[in-house]
Amino acid sequence: MKDFKDRINHIKTEFDASLEQVKNKEALQDIRNLYLSRKKGKITLLFNDLAGLEGKQKPEAGKLINALKTHVLKSLDEKSTEAGTKREKPAPVDLTLPGHKTWWGAPHPVLIFKQEIENIFTSMGFSIADGPEIETDYYNFEALNFPPHHPARDDWDTLYLDKGDLLLRTHTSPVQIRVMEKQKPPIRIVIPGRVYRKETSDPTHLPMFYQIEGLVVDKDITFSHLKGTLEVFLRRLFNENLEIRFRPSFFPFTEPSAEVDMNCTVCKRQDPDCRVCGGSGWIEILGAGMVDPQVLKNVSINPEEYSGFAFGMGIDRTAMFAYRIPDMRLFYENDLRFIRQFSKK
Ligand SMILES: [Zn+2]
Question: Are 43 and 66 in contact (CB under 8 A)?
Fold first, then answer.
């Protein structure tokens, strides 16, 4: 029995000494294995040897071994907590270091440009109107004088929704109808907004883009009013003494209709190889015309009493000319190196 007690004391001394030396978790685990592993742990072996003792000595020896085991477990736990919670002292904060630069959000270049356009028109007495992007066939086409099966419908690859006759509007013109249904002349509005067409993106086409269109309806409105309004608008937008020309064209909802061209802002009509105007010196910028009498009748406005003009242009496309950007897709690729060039400080 005395041998057994000596053995226990010896193991305890040895354990305490080696625990002192432990510097990391791996070493701690090694010690745990050495004393407590199920087959060959030093304490496990002591329990095994109990069987060789005489009957009366067994309980006393068992108590001693249990006490040793409790001591070992407790010491290992303490050591492990100590190792786990020990942290390196944090470096003192240097309050004189410069801060990290924070990027603030800014309006998207297309929205900045849209705002500029809106400001010009509101200063000319126009108000801003808005409408839904999901439209019915009636507002997008029929009320604007595109009867079913009219060939002009084929000019636009329309995105139809599954249910009913709903579609994603192909132009902002349905808002003209919605406004004229509710409001009697005089009407002077511009309608900016997103429109959708089933187009494959390329440098000058996108499946979603911004349009702005204008509508004026009042007594004695003539083509001269249209011409004067667009001249003032384009010269203020491009800040140049632009030349403008009107070419005859066709739109179902205006009669007569015109395409509006302006001088090429990139080559100033000087470069026969200009990529933007193709050397012609002119850029097609707007579609316009006098509101077709049938459209006025569709919204119960008497065309004998009132007349009006309407015009429309792509905001993204015009922004390309204004900022001299070669590819419209750049606006939507979210490359911050591109986008940040437009934020005002
Ligand atoms: Zn040009």
Answer: no
Rounded to an integer, what distance in angstroms lies between the CA atom of residue 134 and that of residue 147? Answer: 19
Residue type at 5 in one-letter notation:
K
Q: How far is the CA of 90 from the centre of ligand 1 (A)?
A: 63
Q: Report the separation in Å between the CA atom of 286 and the middle of ligand 1, taken as the mean of its atom positions.
A: 17
Are residues 290 and 309 in contact, defined by beta-carbon separation less than 8 angstroms? yes
CA 341 to CA 336: how far, in whole Å? Answer: 8
149: alpha, beta or left? (left if phi > 0; alpha if psi -120 to 50)? left
Q: Is residue 113 exposed (0-12), middle (13-18) or buried (19+ Cβ within 10 Å)? A: buried
Distance 263 CA to ligand 1 centre (A): 8
Mean pLDDT value across residues 273-288: 86
What's the token pair of residue 35? Answer: 């004393």
Indicate whether 345 pLDDT > 60: no
Reported as a pLDDT band with limits 50, 70 and 90, residue 344 is low
Q: Which residues surround ligand 1, an ion (CB under 5 A)?
A: 264, 266-267, 274, 276-277
DSSP 68: H
The 8-class DSSP code of residue 8 comes to: H
321 alpha carbon – ligand 1 mean position (Å) = 10
- Distance in angstroms (rounded) separating the CA atoms of residues 211 and 313: 6
